[in-house]
Amino acid sequence: VVQPVESGGGLVQSGGSLRLSCTAPGFTSNGCGVDWSRQDVGGQREWVSSLRTDGTTGYTDSVKGRFTISKDKAKDTVYLQMNKLTPEDTAMYFCKTFGGSPGRAGECGYWGQGTQVTVSS
C-alpha cells in the first residue's frame, strides 16, 4: 500500500507562497500517479493538480500559472509549489495516489490525511 503523507501547510499572507509535500514511499516503483485535491470549509472538494506516470501534469484552471507540481524520485515525494496565493486558496489539501503498474494497482488509490493551508487577506 502506497500511503501518502502530506506536509508543508500553514498560514500565509495573500500573495505569498507555500510548498506542499506528499511523501508516498513506493509510488514510483509501483507506477502510481499522484493527485492533489483541496476541500474548503464548506466541505466541497476540488481537484487541483495531477502528476501522471508518464510525467505529464494537469491543473485546474484557477491555479494554472501559479501552482507547479513536481517530484523527487529519490525521496518518493511529490511537491506542490503554490505561488501568488489568495484567500480563495484556503483549504485542506490532500494528495492521493492513483493508477499503478500492471499487477500493482492495488498499491495505489489511497488518500493522505491532509495539510491545512490558510491564506489571510
Give the SSE map.
Elements: E1 5-7, E2 10-13, E3 18-23, E4 32-39, E5 45-51, E6 57-59, E7 67-72, E8 77-82, E9 91-99, E10 115-120
Parallel strand pairs: 2-10
Antiparallel strand pairs: 1-3, 3-8, 4-5, 4-9, 5-6, 7-8, 9-10
Q: Can you put this structure into words, describing what you see?
A:
With 121 residues, this protein is mainly β. The chain has no helices and 10 strands. It has strands spanning 5-7, 10-13, 18-23, 32-39, 45-51, 57-59, 67-72, 77-82, 91-99, 115-120. A 6-stranded mixed beta sheet has the order 2-10-9-4-5-6, with no helix packed on it. Strand 4 and strand 5 form a beta hairpin. The chain is elongated.
Write a concise keyword list for the protein shown above.
about 120 residues; mainly beta; 6-stranded mixed sheet; 4-stranded antiparallel sheet; about 0% helix
In short:
The protein is mainly β and 121 residues long.
Largest sheet geometry: 6 strands, mixed
Report the principal-axis shape: elongated
**Based on DSSP secondary structure assignment, what is the total number of beta strands?**
10
Write the H/E string, N to C: EEEEEEEEEE
Radius of gyration: 14 Å
Which structural class do the helices and strands define?
A: mainly beta
Total count of helical runs of at least 4 residues: 0
- Residues in β-strands, percent: over 45%
Mean pLDDT: 95
The side-by-side strand order for the widest beta sheet comes to: 2-10-9-4-5-6
Stretches where pLDDT is under 50 for at least 5 consecutive residues are none
Helical fraction = under 10%
Q: How far apart are the termini?
A: 39 Å
